[in-house]
């Protein structure tokens, strides 16, 4: 878990972190580095390259699947492992070395599926199981198709998802439930946080319509801490993290400079040292200019 001795970013002034201290820049993708175009725009690419020229290493921390995030890793010319599935899978795209892979326990995945398939929920949710970096669904829904189109991943319909949870099957890296109604996602979060302890499962939402469940030790904060401290021998004050949603909270709090996007919920911005402009006006570039260049 995230080291409890680490002081949350919101209690520190970013001015106390010297520009030269930042050695690692960690970027969320959707809503942060990537907007409606689903591409990294030239001003952001240029700012990332300028940071790298200053000796700052750049990493991705995303809720996306590994296979969906690799093209952005390549666009950034990152040399670091990729933190996918909220950090559930930390893997290097070039060497294919897996540094960490934490999965949802089979018994808990089955319980979640039972919950999602209650008569009052079944037809209102599209459930995704992520196993071995493949996406499995009960059936193709408009939500699943749209998700696949944006991420470049082809959903695999299998009928009963329980067949993905047999004793000899690989446990899912993540379980996701989609709904067109943000209020339903908020209700899922409230109800399931009452049913499960933080020691059993980690729940978050990466966008208003995505409910996500992972292994209890998985969040972007623990993933960035692992990358910084275990792999790169850095400290929080050497890290800058930028994100736009609730699944970015932990890494924003961990980093010496935690930045939220203008398009982030107010609760996320409240935990950050600084708020960058909206993703559509290249807020990541502005943040890099402010704190690194």
From TrEMBL:
GO MF term set: magnesium ion binding; phosphatase activity
Higher taxonomy: Bacteria, Bacillati, Cyanobacteriota, Cyanophyceae, Leptolyngbyales
Name of the protein in question: HAD family phosphatase
NCBIfam families from the UniProt entry: Cof-subfamily, HAD-SF-IIB
Pfam family, one: Hydrolase_3
Gene3D superfamilies: 3.30.1240.10, HAD superfamily/HAD-like (3.40.50.1000)
A GO CC term assigned to this protein in UniProt: cytosol
Species whose genome carries this gene: Leptolyngbya sp. NK1-12
């Amino acid at each position: 878990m995230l080291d409890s001795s680490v002081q949350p970013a919101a209690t520190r002034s970013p001015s106390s972190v010297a520009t030269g201290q930042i050695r690692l820049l960690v970027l969320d993708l959707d809503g942060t580095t990537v907007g409606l175009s689903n591409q990294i725009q030239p001003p952001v690419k240029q700012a990332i390259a300028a940071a790298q020229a200053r000796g700052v290493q750049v990493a991705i921390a995303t809720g996306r699947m590994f296979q969906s995030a690799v093209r952005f890793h390549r666009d950034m010319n990152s040399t670091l492992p990729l933190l996918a599935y909220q950090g559930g899978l930390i893997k290097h795209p070039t060497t294919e070395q897996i540094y960490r892979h934490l999965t949802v326990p089979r018994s808990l995945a089955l319980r979640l599926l039972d919950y999602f398939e209650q008569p009052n929920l079944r037809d209102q949710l599209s459930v995704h199981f992520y196993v071995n970096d493949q996406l499995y669904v009960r059936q193709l829904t408009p939500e699943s198709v749209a998700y696949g189109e944006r991420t470049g991943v082809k959903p695999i319909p299998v009928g009963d998802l329980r067949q993905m949870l047999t004793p000899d099957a690989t446990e899912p890296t993540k379980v996701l439930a989609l709904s067109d109604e943000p209020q339903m996602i908020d209700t899922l979060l409230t109800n399931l946080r009452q049913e499960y302890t933080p020691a059993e499962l980690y729940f978050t939402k990466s966008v208003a319509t995505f409910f996500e469940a992972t292994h209890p030790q998985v969040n972007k904060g623990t993933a960035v801490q692992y990358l910084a401290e275990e792999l790169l021998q850095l400290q929080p004050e050497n890290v800058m993290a930028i994100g736009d949603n609730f699944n970015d909270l932990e890494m924003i709090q961990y980093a010496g400079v935690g930045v939220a996007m203008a398009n982030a919920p107010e609760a996320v911005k409240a935990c950050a040292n600084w708020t960058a402009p909206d993703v559509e006006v290249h807020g990541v570039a502005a943040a890099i200019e402010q704190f690194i260049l």
